[in-house]
């Protein structure tokens, strides 16, 4: 009777120590594959957060024209890594400023909802100073017309329209001088921003208080002008 030679068959081991010792071999391989894939993704996300935090701080101090290569250097990454996450400057500016622009949007909505015309306008001016006058990049994005901030064009128009409404309300209520226009407010805020660039140590709160005193009619500015401290600029964390 012919008997076929025994086949050299070996079942795949199970677990780390063989059959029945735990998770099947194939499952262990799959887990290892997931871990290998997960690490690059985590590294990529960490790099993205670092780039955004670095860019936000750099734009705040030096404006939106800062070279991408310099942002990469400050982040401790290669320029190729930065471009892999943000192919164009517009992409990086949008990511770096999106949260701050949303905060400005919320502040302006709060001012529009304030029933008292003077408190509404003075609150908007304070918020403007807290955010944009302490942040050169945000100021260029919302108060100027920097080409890299094209994604915020709608916000820029809405902010300008809202400020005009606040000035008109305050003037009609007699809270500000009758000759005050929204352009006066814009010019004064722009002047304060420019002055701050040349004199970073200038007392921003005092400059804002002087602006409000100049706008106010009669006693409408008392006592809020001198009692609301400006919040310091919030730093991004990587």
Automatic annotation (TrEMBL):
<dbReference type="GO" id="GO:0000976">
    <property type="term" value="F:transcription cis-regulatory region binding"/>
</dbReference>
<feature type="domain" description="HTH tetR-type">
    <location>
        <begin position="45"/>
        <end position="104"/>
    </location>
</feature>
<dbReference type="InterPro" id="IPR049445">
    <property type="entry name" value="TetR_SbtR-like_C"/>
</dbReference>
<feature type="DNA-binding region" description="H-T-H motif">
    <location>
        <begin position="67"/>
        <end position="86"/>
    </location>
</feature>
<keyword id="KW-0804">Transcription</keyword>
<keyword id="KW-0238">DNA-binding</keyword>
<dbReference type="GO" id="GO:0003700">
    <property type="term" value="F:DNA-binding transcription factor activity"/>
</dbReference>
<keyword id="KW-0805">Transcription regulation</keyword>
<dbReference type="InterPro" id="IPR036271">
    <property type="entry name" value="Tet_transcr_reg_TetR-rel_C_sf"/>
</dbReference>
<protein>
    <submittedName>
        <fullName>TetR/AcrR family transcriptional regulator</fullName>
    </submittedName>
</protein>
<dbReference type="InterPro" id="IPR050109">
    <property type="entry name" value="HTH-type_TetR-like_transc_reg"/>
</dbReference>
<dbReference type="InterPro" id="IPR001647">
    <property type="entry name" value="HTH_TetR"/>
</dbReference>
<dbReference type="Pfam" id="PF00440">
    <property type="entry name" value="TetR_N"/>
</dbReference>
<dbReference type="InterPro" id="IPR009057">
    <property type="entry name" value="Homeodomain-like_sf"/>
</dbReference>
<dbReference type="Pfam" id="PF21597">
    <property type="entry name" value="TetR_C_43"/>
</dbReference>
